[in-house]
Specification:
With 75 residues, the protein is mostly helical. The chain has one domain. The chain contains 5 helices and no strands. The termini are close together.
Amino acid sequence: MAKFKQEVIERIESDADLFSAVAKALQIKPTSLPQTLKRNGNTLNQYMVVTVVASHLGCEPDDLIEKETTEEVQK
C-alpha cells in the first residue's frame, strides 16, 4: 500500500489552504481530515488527492509517496 511521506502529512496539517484542498478533493468535512491523515491509507492516497497535493507543493506525485520495501511487498 502506498502512503504519503511523513513530511507531506505534516505539510498538509500545517498549511490551511492545502488542508482545505485535500478535504475538498476527498469530499469530506475538514473536521474529519485529521483522522484520515493519521491513517495515511488508501482513502488519502487516491489519484485526485495526490495530484492536488503535488500541484499545491509544486512537485511530482511520485515525490510525495513512500517507496515500498521488499518486505512490505511480500506481506
